[in-house]
Amino acid sequence: IPRPSNSFVCYRSAYADRIKQWASEDNHQGVSRIAGASWKLEPDDVRNFYIECAELDRANHAKAFPSYKFKPKQKSTSR
């Protein structure tokens, strides 16, 4: 079960295709780097829009998977 998206993931998803066109970036790392720099420069109203989108995604995720609880896996240390 995938985790619900946070505000930055919603923002990155919305702008990924535009970033690929503008910056000629075709790899995920480059797109994320540009989206991260752009996210920091966005005004509060844009950021608030994506915060609301993330809250909506979280609510829909809770309805779809009511018993979901995030449980990160422990990294195994093999030394």
TrEMBL record:
Organism: Aureobasidium melanogenum (strain CBS 110374)
An MF annotation (GO) of this entry: DNA-binding transcription factor activity, RNA polymerase II-specific
Matching Gene3D superfamilies: High mobility group box domain
Classification via InterPro entries: HMG_box_dom, HMG_box_dom_sf, SOX/SOX-like_TF
Every HMG box domain range: 1-69
Identification of the protein by name: HMG box domain-containing protein
UniProt DNA-binding region: 1-69
Keywords, sorted A to Z: DNA-binding, Nucleus
Taxonomy of the source species: Eukaryota, Fungi, Dikarya, Ascomycota, Pezizomycotina
GO CC field: nucleus
